[in-house]
Amino acid sequence: MPGSDAVAAAAHFAVVDSVTSVEAHPAGHINDAYLVSTDRRRYLLQRLNPSVFPDTDAVMANVIAITNHLHAKGEPTLTLVPTDTGGLSWRDGTGVAWRMYDYIEARRPLEVRSPDDAAVVGRAFGRFHRLAADLDPTSLKVSLPGFHDPARRRAQLERAASTDAHGRLADASELVDALLAHSVPTLEGLPVRVAHNDAKAANLLVDGAGAGPPLVVDLDTVMAGSVLWDVGDMVRSSTGTPNEANAAVVFEVERYEAVVAAWLEEVEELLTAPERDAAPNAGPVVTFEQSVRFLTDHLLGDVYFRVSRPGENLDRARNQWQLLRSMETGIGSG
Ligand code: GN1
Ligand code: MG
After folding, report:
1. Phi and psi (nearest 5°) for 153?
2. Count of domains observed in the chain
């Protein structure tokens, strides 16, 4: 049973009919989500995580820009529900922002288990990049400064390890040392475009039969940047285990080839040679960055990525590290 804060927040949005229920809805690692029902339609209410998104106005401005852009092209995307005063988000008494979308019925997050599934990921985000290519990236806000920046993430890990505020370093030190000693290529200096910045498979909603085209969701990180970060997240999330905390993971090279080929097919007209050449680097860079981020959050006491049990972020960091090691030998040898 969700807190009364979600029920109170729901009452501020212009839904079609009286609300009959508000239920917690499982979602990603960051925001809290609630399924709001009326007799006629359902909605997804979200509480934007204030420690992850300090500038929710910038986040909302980017969400509005990308959804308007895609709607204008007739492309299915998320639809924001206005508040009762005509805004698109509502702030509660503590200053936290809430927003509501039409609920996407009969869809589930994609879990990649085959090369065909991986191709779905490449096509969907490639299509997103292609359709967003005529939205001026400089019109978007920098809602999360330095979001994709492995060197900055590495420095944060180093600080968290040297402080060890929660006494968690002993169990994690082997992985901390390995990550701090590891070097990955750079994705700097590439063209700036509209990027999703969280292009993982689970941010695609597919229907049960896999028949309809997937819907690209979780638009909170849409910002200007290189689309190669998205390629990295596509590879990271399509070539390992759908559950990022799985104990064992091996890089699946056929899925890798399928995801990259499908993406290239969608965007080939758009790309420059340096972007095409950087594609094999993207998976390792982003998988490294993600392992560093999970491990840092474990050491900081799980303040960023939601956990369902103690140690989950450490397991996620280990999964991503194993995937990275296996990816580094697998790419190019397939
Ligand atoms: C978070 O919200 P969600 O679960 O889609 C995170 C991403 C990570 C991802 C790892 C704003 O995404 O950057 O890659 O977890 N989002 C933010 O699963 O930090
Ligand atoms: Mg998500």
Report:
1. -65, -40
2. 2
